[in-house]
């Protein structure tokens, strides 16, 4: 079955180089990198070379600043809870934005129940945080600012460098959740000026279930998994060496190919924006046109509901993601879409189209012809569309 | 996620549309999820001779509306008064738990349409607004967890049974 993948934010196919490296790693039966015998040391060397590849990809000053984890969620939990616990004596105040991923929202919620205070900064209608609002939110008690690099629902990129200047000056640690950015736009942790940065291997066509946390040297952080001394005492547990080898291979390819991938995605994004008005009317583009990832477009189609659209496109073998409350199993419309000013009804019709280096113009043509039929069918059923036509 | 019966009614919804000279009309809307359903009835000799629907909502909401119209078609008004949301879900051979109380509004819309029909017959004129009633995951006085279907206190923030947060954003 050949499916057109317009849901790259959920899954990006692994690179052939990644698969080959992982299969080779399985065949070689590496030992535990923590063991001191020859076989263990060999595994430790492989682990180190992967760490160097990932560090180079993110331009970390030292490979030791890369902590391997089980993915974006663990990295975010580690950054927030690890910094909060390690710095509790200094203060218990954390600043986030109101469009963060649930990994951030629920981590700080957990901390709130333990006596921490959280300020959530509202984004403006363009979906971006005003750095001045961060400056205003920081108090003597503030120990951490956590603002995402790009939003996973709209693709909007936030002004991380400007915020980092403020946190540096105020001597507050700064974490950015860059899970959707790494592998899509160039990420240079030193240029960004952040102290902590979360990423996941699958964002750059590596295996799912592996990721990492960049921790600038000297950052005060506790592990959230206690046990052995792996990962320079920052994350206990035997390393997922096969997954890490896959991530290392992905980082090497991504470092070289990212500019090509970027250009390709931008062409697809431009085509989507140009072709949409030819097939449907009355829709809203939620992605910030000036500051956005090139591989994503969030579109709210008015008078219809996203899950229905997703299911009908699925019948045509086109995979998309929707942010309607019904589809996500939550009670309310997406907090991200409401915070950029969408009404609940419009938020319900939101599709997140995300694509990649292998998406073709023909894929988009096929999507457009399918979308046209789906929107017509669903608007014929919709009482809202009829009311709008009558008014 | 959905069973075959639900997907069949979603893919090929029965009785979609509007009856211009309807004998009764009922609309329910859910302000939280945004699902909305309108039912149109044509009644001859106290029997539903035609029924049509329009729905804004997820796959489950569309399947529920379609199934409801199939159940109600041809029934007498007295028979149709006994149709419940539970009957519709049963005829669909089950709905996902988190959909039971947000998209399963079909019978509510039908009952409002019947009420409208009877009011018109009795010569009562109701302002249009009073016919659209908010449906907030509640049935009468009771609230239910949309995830596990357990009855809840109105001010509950967490479902005790499944530990799902009911108040958090997103």
**What CATH architecture of the largest domain in chain A would you give?**
3-Layer(aba) Sandwich
Task: Using the coordinates shown, work out and report the CATH topology of the largest domain in chain A.
Answer: Aspartate Aminotransferase, domain 2
The helix tally of chain B amounts to: 5
Looking at CATH, the homologous superfamily of the largest domain in chain A is Type I PLP-dependent aspartate aminotransferase-like (Major domain)
Low-confidence stretches of chain B: 129-142
| Class by alpha and beta content of chain B | alpha+beta
Q: In order across it, which strands form the biggest sheet of chain B? A: 3-2-1-4
Number of E-type strands of chain A: 13
Which terms would index this structure?
heterodimer; A: 391 residues; alpha/beta; Aspartate Aminotransferase, domain 1; Aspartate Aminotransferase, domain 2; 2 domains; four-stranded antiparallel beta sheet; 13 strands; globular; B: 170 residues; alpha+beta; Sufe protein. Chain: A; 7 strands; 21% strand
Task: Give a written overview of the molecule.
The complex is a heterodimer of chains A (391) and B (170). Chain A is globular. Chain A folds into two domains: 4-10 and 258-390, Aspartate Aminotransferase, domain 1, CATH 3.90.1150; 16-254, 3-Layer(aba) Sandwich (Aspartate Aminotransferase, domain 2). Chain A has helices at 16-28, 38-58, 72-86, 102-112, 131-137, 160-169, 189-192, 230-233, 241-279, 306-315, 325-328, 335-339, 344-348, 361-381, 383-390; strands at residues 4-5, 66-69, 93-97, 117-121, 142-146, 173-177, 196-200, 211-215, 283-285, 296-301, 318-319, 321-322, 350-354. The model of chain A has no long low-confidence stretch (mean pLDDT 95). In chain A, strand 5 (142-146), helix 6 (160-169) and strand 6 form a beta-alpha-beta unit. Chain A has a seven-stranded mixed β-sheet with strand order 2-8-7-6-5-3-4, sandwiched between helices. By secondary structure, chain A is of the alpha/beta class. Chain B has 170 residues and is α+β, with helices and mostly antiparallel strands. Chain B has two domains: 4-136, Sufe protein. Chain: A; 137-170, no CATH class. In chain B, a hairpin with a 2-residue loop joins strand 5 and strand 6 (142-144). In chain B, helix 1 (4-11) packs across helix 2 (59-72). The longest helix of chain B is centred in the last third of the chain and has 16 residues, at 106-121. The two termini of chain B are 20 Å apart. Residues 129-142 of chain B have low confidence and may be disordered. The chains are: A alpha/beta (391), B alpha+beta (170). The interface between A and B is large, with 36 and 35 residues.
């Amino acid at each position: 079955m050949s499916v057109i993948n317009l849901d790259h934010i959920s899954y990006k196919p692994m690179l052939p180089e990644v698969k080959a490296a992982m299969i080779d790693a399985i065949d070689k039966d590496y030992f535990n990198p923590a063991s001191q015998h020859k076989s263990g040391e060999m595994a430790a060397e492989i682990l180190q070379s992967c760490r160097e590849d990932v560090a180079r990809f993110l331009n970390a000053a030292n490979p030791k600043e890369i902590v391997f984890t089980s993915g974006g969620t663990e990295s975010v939990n580690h950054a927030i809870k690890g910094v909060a616990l390690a710095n509790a004596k200094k203060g218990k105040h954390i600043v986030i934005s109101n469009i963060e991923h649930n990994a951030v929202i629920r981590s700080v919620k957990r901390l709130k129940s333990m006596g921490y205070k959280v300020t959530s900064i509202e984004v403006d209608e363009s979906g971006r945080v005003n750095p001045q609002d961060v400056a205003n939110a920081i108090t003597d008690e503030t120990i951490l600012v956590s603002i995402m690099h790009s939003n996973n629902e709209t693709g909007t990129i936030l002004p991380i460098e400007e915020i980092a200047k403020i946190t540096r000056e105020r001597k507050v640690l700064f974490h950015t959740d860059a899970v959707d950015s790494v592998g899509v736009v160039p990420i240079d942790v030193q240029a960004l000026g952040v102290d902590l940065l979360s990423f996941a291997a699958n964002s750059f066509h590596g295996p799912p279930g592996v990721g990492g946390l960049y921790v600038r040297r000297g950052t005060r952080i506790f592990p959230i998994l206690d046990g052995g001394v792996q990962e320079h005492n920052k994350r206990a547990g035997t390393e997922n060496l096969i997954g890490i080898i896959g991530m290392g291979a992905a980082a090497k390819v991504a470092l070289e190919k990212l500019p090509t991938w970027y250009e390709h995605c931008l062409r697809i994004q431009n085509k989507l924006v140009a072709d949409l008005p030819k097939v449907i009317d009355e829709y809203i583009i939620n992605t910030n046109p000036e500051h956005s990832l090139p591989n994503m477009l969030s579109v709210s189609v008015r008078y219809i509901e996203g899950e229905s659209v997703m299911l009908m496109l699925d019948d045509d073998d086109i995979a998309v993601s929707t942010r309607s409350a019904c589809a996500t199993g939550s009670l309310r419309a997406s907090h991200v879409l409401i915070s950029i000013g969408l009404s609940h009804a419009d938020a319900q019709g939101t599709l997140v189209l995300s694509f990649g280096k292998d998406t073709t113009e023909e894929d988009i043509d096929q999507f457009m012809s399918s979308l046209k039929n789906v929107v017509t069918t669903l608007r014929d059923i919709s009482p809202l569309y009829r009311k709008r036509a009558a008014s | 996620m959905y069973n075959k019966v639900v997907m069949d009614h979603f893919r090929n919804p029965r009785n979609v549309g509007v009856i211009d000279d309807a004998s009764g009309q009922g609309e329910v809307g859910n302000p939280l999820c945004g699902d909305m359903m309108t039912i149109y009835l044509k009644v001859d000799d106290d029997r539903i001779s035609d029924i049509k629907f329009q729905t804004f909502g997820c796959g489950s909401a569309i399947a529920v509306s379609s199934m409801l119209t199939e159940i109600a078609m041809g029934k007498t008004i007295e028979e149709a008064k006994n149709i419940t949301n539970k009957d519709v879900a049963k005829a669909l051979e089950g709905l996902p738990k988190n959909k039971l109380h947000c998209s399963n509004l079909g019978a509510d819309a039908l009952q409002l349409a019947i009420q409208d029909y009877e009011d018109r017959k009795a010569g009562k004129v109701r302002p249009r607004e009073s016919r659209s009633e908010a449906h907030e995951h509640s049935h009468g006085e009771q609230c239910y967890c949309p995830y596990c279907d357990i009855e809840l206190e109105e001010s509950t923030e967490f479902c005790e049974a499944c530990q799902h947060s009911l108040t958090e954003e997103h």
